[in-house]
Amino acid sequence: MWTSKRRAVVRALYVVAFPSLSANSFAFQSAVTSSRSRWLSRQHSIRSYSVSSIKMVKQQIDNRVALLQVPVTESKSTNLKTASDYIRKAHDAGAKLTVLPEIWNSPYATSAFGDYAEMLPNVGDKLTETSNEEETSEAADNEWGQSSRLLMTLAKEYNMYIVGGSIPETCDNKIFNTCLIINPRGEVVGKHRKVHLFDIDVPGGICFKESDTLTAGDGVTHFDVDGLGKIGIGICYDIRFPEFAMLLTQHYDCKILIFPGAFNLTTGPAHWELLQRARAVDGQCYVMTASPARTSPPNDDGEADTKSKYPHYSAWGHSTVVSPWGEVVATCDEDPAMVVTDLDMSKVDEMRMAIPTMKQKRNDLYRLVDG
User: What would the pLDDT profile of 260-318 be if each residue is shown by its tens digit?
Assistant: First the structure.
C-alpha cells in the first residue's frame, strides 16, 4: 500500500538541461534549482547523474520518459532546430518516450496560428523510405509540413516514441491545435485535436480566446507503449475537465495521461500543479505535462518593440510528473529544461487495488458515458 514509508522510496530521475553559452551544446545541472525541488529530492530519493554519466547512457532505459521545456521564438526554423536538439538530448539520456510542449513551433498567439499552421499526417501515415527532412518523394508526404516530418524522422532515427506537443494544423479551411504521437518506426499512432478551447477572461488577469482562430477537436486519443501501457492525451485546457480524463482512465484504462500545455502567469501559479495532482488522484494514474519555457518580452530591455509581429505570451513553465498518489515526483522551474523520470508502473496497479474507486462507482446514481 501507499504508506508514508513506502512513498519515501519512490524513485525518479531528475535531470535539468539548460542551453549553455554555446548555441549547439547543453549544460546539464544535476543540482536541483529551487527549494521546492530540494524538498522533492529528499522526499522521493531523486537520483541525479553527472554530465558524463548522462552522455554515456546512449541506450534506452525501460519506462524512462523526458519532458522537453523548450524556448519558443517567432522563427520556425529556430524552433525546429531547438526541438531537434532537445529530442537528441532526450535520446542521449535514455528516454523511451519524450514529450514536447504545446505550440512549440509557433508563438502562442491567435494571430500567429494561421501563419504557422501546417498540413499534418493522419494515424497510420509514415514517411516514405526515401524521404527525409529536406526532400520527400511522394505527393502525400510532400503536403505535410516541416514540423511533422521532423518528428517522424527523429522518432525513427532515435527509435523512440515522440509525443509531439502541439502545433497549429490546417485542414479543410480550419485550424486545429493538434498533437501527433509518433512511434519508433516513424509512424503516426495518435492524433489529438484540442477538445476544449482556451477561451477565458480573468478580470485583472488575462483575456485569451482560442476560438477566434481555432476549431475544437471532437474525439479522445490514446495509444499503447510496451512497458507503460495505455497512454491518454489531452492538450492544456483539456486538463480542466475531469470527465475527459476519467473517460481516458476508466473507459480506456489509460495508466498515464499526458498534457502538453502552456498555462500563463495568471492561471499557472494557481492551478497548474493543482490540476495535475487532481487528475492523477481522480484517475489513479501518472500525469505528465510539458510547457514551453518562459521567455522575456522583446522590449524588456527598454527599447521599442519594433520587431515582434505577435503579442508576447509568457508561459508558466514548470513541466512536471505527478504520481498516482498525487505527489510531484519530478519538476523544474520556468527556464529551458529537460525533466527525465523513470516511471514505476507498478504504482498504478498498487494504487488502484489499495483504493479501488473504479470498482466502487454508483452507476445507479451517475454514469460516465462515452459520447
Answer: 999 999 999 999 999 999 999 999 999 999 999 999 887 655 454 456 899 999 999 99
For the ranges 27-41, 51-65, 94-108, the lowest mean pLDDT is seen at 27-41
Query: How many angstroms separate the CA atoms of 86 and 19, rounded?
Result: 10
Secondary structure letter of residue 24 according to DSSP = T
- Its pTM stands at 0.84
pLDDT recorded at residue 299: 67
Averaging pLDDT over each range in 11-15, 44-48, 96-100, which range is the top one? Answer: 96-100
Determine whether 102 is an active site residue.
Answer: yes
Q: Which of 86, 77, 185 is nearest to 129 (CA)?
A: 185
Write down the catalytic residue from 76, 194, 255, 347. 194
- Residue 313 contacts residue 262 (beta carbons within 8 Å): yes
Contact 189, 225 (CB under 8 A): no
From the candidates 74, 96, 102, 254, give the one annotated as an active-site residue.
Answer: 102
Give CA–CA dist 182/325, Å, rounded: 29
58 catalytic? Reply is no
Catalytic annotation present for 236? yes
- Tally the C-alpha atoms within 13 A of residue 365's C-alpha that lie toward its C-beta: 3
Integer Cα distance of 230 and 234 in angstroms: 14
* Banded model confidence at residue 364, pLDDT cuts 50, 70, 90: very high
DSSP single-letter state for residue 271: I
* Collapsed DSSP state (helix, strand, coil) of residue 235: coil
| Active-site residue (options: 74, 169, 236, 332) | 236
Helix (H) or strand (E) holding 69: strand 64-69
Distance from C-alpha of 275 to C-alpha of 236, rounded to nearest angstrom = 10
CB atoms within 10 A of CB 307: 9
Question: Could you tell me the three cell numbers for 355?
Answer: 483504493
d(CA 162, CA 156): 10
Q: Report which residue type is found at 371.
A: G
